[in-house]
Amino acid sequence: MKYHQIDRQLYIKNRAKFTAQMKPKSVAVFNSNDIYPISADSSMPFQQHRDILYLSGVDKEDSILVLCPDAPFEHLREMLFLKETSEHIAVWEGEKLTKDRAFEVSGIKTVYWLTEFDKVLNEVMTYTETMYINTNEHYRASVETETREARFVKSWKDKYPAHQVAKSNPILQRLRSVKDKIELDLIQNACDITEKGFRRVLSFVKPDVTEYEIEAEFIHEFIRNRSKGFAYTPIIASGNNANVLHYIENNQPCKAGDLILLDVGAEYANYSSDMTRTIPVSGRFNDRQKAVYNAVLNVKNEATKLLVPGTLWKEYHIEVGKIMTSELLGLGLIDKADVQNENPDWPAYKKYFMHGTSHHMGLDTHDYGLLYEPMQPNMVFTVEPGIYIPAEGFGIRLEDDVIIQEHGDPFNLMRNIPIEVDEIESIMNS
User: Fold this and answer.
1) Where are the beta strands (DSSP E) in 97-247?
2) What sign does the dihedral 251-255-260-264 (CA atoms) show?
């Protein structure tokens, strides 16, 4: 891995928090992700399942974590199962985790090879009554492939039908949504790398540069700072492309006078950042662009102040809608009649701002978090309002990542990334 080793105390604490929520006489199993094939002998780059990563720090394929806190023998209470390494594998694929190295990373003393998994699990099942299975219950989830986790659940149910079943995901949704200090530092590092990429791009952009050249500038800066690259597929949308919310073609030239919407973020140690900035191709905003830009910025600033402990996500978005409505009235994009006659299920402002304002962020860009529960300190949220005007050939979105504090306004992890009109123009014309 490119990133520096993370303090294993993070994973020791995470496991302790999880096992404290488990029922008596229970066991939980967490599987790594598959390596997905492309064709022939090619495969996609491996991405570790975020749950086993959160609980162990193991960032390797073919790994399994077993937690059985009430096992009668200490060596069975926390176990890792790894693919056995060899000299042959080391030559062809590089270093895999040894048992000693796995302990250094995770703090787990009991490490077995995968070949021993069925035998050891069988013993553990004789001491337990409940199995915690790990299913994906994120509100945005749409899983069309059968994962390694799903295959395990299917085979386990066939083999141990008398055991009760419990769910790991609700526990993880709560735990992962509130970040540890170590996690916050990792997210801050990801945001700092994103800042370096953005400043590089500000000095690079000019008329007739292509969207993909801008993408290349970002990835160069990200990788040279120990990131694997983008935390998600980047959006480099010039002109009217910005009005396609998930535009990812990134293949068009950037024309003089247009704006470029940049929705990009670096990852670091599998933790995401998520930034959006909108900049002028020619280095200066015209008056109309500036007016819309400052309206979006004001919505972002006011929305940020609402992210405090106790806030409910649904009510928060209603309040942000009111702020956006006021700005759109000021811009002449809607009028009082539009507001008076609006459909409550699709308010007037939705014509120009049709997506949500904030989501949890962490190990996943759209991270775990139960949206029906009040916000808590040390949750990380994005703030990303936008105004999209196809008739005028541009869209503007601005986005920062913030940490909810016990008292006062959130802490802005992207506080050092230029966002004011004057600062952006100054850098682009220096």
Assistant:
1) 110-113, 130-133, 164-167, 235-238
2) positive
Question: At CA 365, angle to CA 263 and CA 230, rounded to 5?
Answer: 55
Which one-letter amino acid corresponds to residue 6? I
Residue 63, pLDDT score: 96
> What would the two tokens of residue 427 be?
């850098």
H/E element, 383: strand 380-383
Question: For 326-356, what is each residue's pLDDT tens digit?
Answer: 999 999 999 999 999 999 999 999 999 999 9
Instruction: Catalogue all structural domains in the chain, each as residue range(s) with its CATH number.
Output: 9-177 (3.40.350.10), 181-428 (3.90.230.10)
Q: How far is Cα 419 from Cα 426, in angstroms, rounded to an integer? A: 11
The answer, yes or no, to whether residue 88 has pLDDT greater than 90, is no
Report pLDDT for 247: 97
From residue 226, how far is each of 99, 174, 222, 414 by CA, in Å?
A: 25, 29, 7, 19
Residue with tokens 């399994």: 64
Q: What are phi and psi of 280, to 5 degrees?
A: -85, 130
- Three-state DSSP state, 153: helix
* 332-335 CB contacts, 8 Å cutoff, 24+ apart: 333/387, 333/389
Instruction: Round to whole Å and give the CA distance between 37 and 104.
Output: 31
The strand pair at 110-113 and 42-43 is best described as unpaired
Report the run of H or E that residue 157 belongs to, with start and end: helix 148-159
DSSP 8-state code for residue 147: -
With beta carbons less than 8 A apart as the criterion, state whether 208 and 253 touch.
yes
3-class secondary structure for 57-80? CCCCCCEEEEECCCCCCHHHCEEE
Give the length of the chain. Answer: 430
Q: Is the pTM of this model over 0.90?
A: yes
Task: List Cα–Cα distances, 68 to 120, 126, 296, in angstroms.
Answer: 12, 12, 50
Q: What are 254's two structure tokens? A: 């950037």
